[in-house]
Amino acid sequence: MFIINCPFCGEREQSEFKAGGEAHIVRPKQPTELSDDQWAEYLFMRKNIKGVQFERWNHAHGCRKWFNMVRDTSNDKIKAVYKMGEKPPVE
Amino acid sequence: MTKNLRVKSGKFIDETYRISFKFNGSTYYGFKGDTLSSALLANDVHLVGRSFKYHRPRGIMTAGSEEPNAIVQLHDNSSRTEPNVRATEVEIYEGLEASSQNCWPSVKFDIGGINNFLSPLLPAGFYYKTFMWPASFWEKYEYFIRRSAGLGKSPTEPDPDIYEHKYIHCDVLVVGSGISGVLAAKTAAKNGFKTLLVDEKPYLGGSTIYQKTDYFKINNQTSSSWLEKEINEIKKLKNLEIKIRTSVAAYHGYNFLLARENLTDHLPIDQRKNKIRHRLLKIRAKKVITATGSIERPMIFDNNDRPGILLSSAIKSYADFFGVATGEKNILLTNNDSAYETAISLIQKGINVEAIIDNREEVESKLLYEVEKNNIKIFKGFTVINTFGYKRINKISIKKLSKDGQKVVGSRINLSCDCLGISGGWTPAVHLFTQSGGKLKFREEDQVFIPNIYSSDQLSIGSCNGDFTLDEILINAPKSLKDFLNINNTEYDNLDIVSSTNKSKRNIWLLPSDKVLGKTKSFVDYQNDATAKDIKLALREGFRSIEHVKRYTTTGMGTDQGKLGNMHALGIISETAGAKMGELGTTTFRPPYTPLTFGTIVGRNVGEYFDIIRKTPIHNWHVEHHAKFENVGQWKRAWYYPKENENMHQAVQRESKAARESAGILDASTLGKIDIQGTDASEFLNRVYTNAWSKLAIGKCRYGLMLNEDGMVYDDGVTTRLGENHYIMTTTTGGAANVMSKLEDYLQTEWPELDVYLTSVTDHFATVSVCGPNSKKIISKVIPDLDLSDESFPHMSFKDAKIGKINCRVMRISFTGELSYEINIQANYAKSVWEKCIECGKDFDITPYGTETMHLLRAEKGFIIVGQDTDATMTPIDLQMDWIVSKKKYDFIGKRSLYRSDTIREDRKQLVGLLTENPDEVLEEGAQIVANVDKSPIEMLGHVTSSYYSPNLKKSIALGVVKGGKNMMGQKLIIPMEKKNINVTVADPVFLDKENKRLNA
Ligand SMILES: [Zn+2]
What we know:
- The complex is a heterodimer.
- By secondary structure, chain A is mainly beta.
- Chain A has one helix at 36-44, and strands spanning 3-6, 10-13, 18-22, 52-58, 66-72, 77-83.
- Chain A has a single domain (3-83), classed as Folate-binding fold, CATH 3.30.2270.10.
- In chain B, β32 and β33 (635-640) form a beta hairpin.
- Classes of the chains: A mainly beta, B alpha+beta.
- At the A-B interface, α1 of A face α20 of B.
């Protein structure tokens, strides 16, 4: 069970958090202009990387804020956490 | 009568405290401090069970948690009986009853033993190969497999014991209290670290605590007396908490560990009352030191599994610690110096050692010389090739090993014995280390896997780190502790150490025999009866991956997870396949290290504490009025209110009629409520609902449908505009939390520019819903100064009002199709308002109704319930709710998905009404819908989602989803049931009052 450093609250147990899938998938501003394939790319396609992955997490049983996390899925090491809208740390 | 094999024991056994216990129905005696296995061995009982596949007689093999054979069932009592308990870990207590598992009718005469003679027919993968075909026979095979499998019996009554969970936070956790664990705990605690020391055994000190020879000394004392003083000192340390009988089950990432503290299993039953039996410790440690020791390896040769064959270290432990001789004619087989330590202990205790068979040729060993001095015959360069004796070993055959160790040469020598100790060297107990994500490396010189790369702030010391001898431990552990704890020195930096072990070892994974392998039974995994032959067969059949060989042969898949034999399996694979051990890797050791009881896992979360129960503020009224309740998520909702002898159907019919003919009252407090404020609140609603919200006037209500981004219906409910920038949204009861999360997600991540604030107010407000043609009259009595005229207070509008001093929000909205008012009040006033409505409704025979009637009434109107009439595959178009999807809005959640090639298919399942040919026939929800039963395979068109008998329409009505249903109006379809086919006609889903006249009645 991880210890996650919520950017708003500090270190908390993983059981307080909810994982929210891959980060930095921006909802298209003009969905109606997209082809079925382009929309499907946004809607369904996820990388599911073994290694360093950018993820969304929510401090559901805490401040309820969403934030981003860089995690190595092969060993669960959390490399960074940062607020929504902030640039991911360069890898 | 059985023999007494008790010899002079140390101070660990209290010979003044005699305890009687039962094993397989016979009464035996032991002493306080005995385990079930030591007490049985003291009574000369070796045969304790039968093996899993061949039902071979098996005896106690070890003295610890790695025991593969002595697996017993405790108690006959139907609530406390417990299977799969290791006799080596059971501390005896007055009244203990235990019996052998996996034997029928008795351990001495076992019918399954016939499998032993059939063993040529039971090779590796036997079950996979034999029981696969024909598939239809599986059920029959399964019955016999399960019957003979013999994994003990589970209790048939609820567990009477109490369990609990506890969180522990510490700076340093030390796992294992052997010599290295004790010095680690003392060093950490004395340097200011808040330290926790745990050990699975009931005492501290590991195997050093009974090491009493001059061959192992520290500062001029025997290692045991030196350690004893250390233990006495650490017991006084304030910074150190010590927990015995505490076994670490799992080591997760970020130094989170689970341990089981056993508090009462060693007490007589009558002293356990009202005490916590097991405690699951959830430990978060800043640093972890694993000092989990090592497990002695058995050796693999023909018939290496007979009762009376034990690990050499176990024989030493029984003699030194428990004062029990495991035999009167002992022989030891070894490939290293450990067996000589055992021999010296036995000699000291006056227990006869007949001979030692050493795989090694001439070695310079002080321990060996000491044994030789006692005129004990040592066969150097020999090995055991076979053993004899069915229920107890009585003879062994030995032969000289060839130079390369691949063959045996010379003539066979037979030696009689009643106990054979085997020592194949030591395997570091790296289970916890690997669970934590650590990576091992293989050390060629003594063929062991040792910790290499740590994945957390952790240190392995002592023999679990591959330091097997006293000098290695005492030199290396303090060094690595200094680095790990970042301290300059320890008390142990300048110890005067005497250690006499010669480290040489002649490792042969599979000892040679004069028979061909196919004719031998050389067990690698005792518990699962996997032999060397099985592993070689798996390799011949093409299995290469260690993980595959494990599953095919079931090696390491017993409750002991192959603690003894896994390394030999790897070794045999390595030798046979010509692969390097280090490259093969090990199989994954999974938690728990030793089995946990279910009670430990669930702790206090049993019965009514299993999950949270949510009750509305009106709950007690429902209870007082004999409501039956149904669970909706965590909520208890009034389901129906039976009168006298009414059954559910009768009550629901009565409640439904009353609501339509006069007045009904429903507790709708469980509906999710979200308060939405901010200058962009209207825009926000535009984006999350399918319909338009900007033009909704203040004081008006609107029904909304919320989709997922994939276009499928997610939730629905009525939202009311309370002010220019203020709305209150209602959600389904079950969907409330998810809707809140989803809205927060979009606000925080996609649309952070919107000025919108969300507050969940589900529990703050209660909702009393009064419906029916007389509802207006009742509300006018409840709130006399509220103008209820249609002009001032039309359908789908809201007003603030006061009931006495209580502020309330009254909405005129309807989920039943009747004229209907919902009063929202602060939750703690809800019961009085409810009672006032009942009081004011008396003249109109106001009838409380529950969720079942609510469902019936809305079905008459064709209103959907999200989650019942929809699953995650229904679009609003599929629901024939095109009217609610705005064509004008540029975007909303899910809009783009509504015209994907898949969602615009005409033949998707669509919601329709269904009327049965026989108006009294009520369909079953979930029943399949077809068009044609004559042509097979029958095409399934859909299923029934809601179905009721409508007392108001006096006929059966149903909703269902049917492929292309929208264009099938009036068509006949069939519901095929087990005993008959029911004819139905596709109808409009709105069955009652299509013109909505009743809303304004
Ligand atoms: Zn937080």
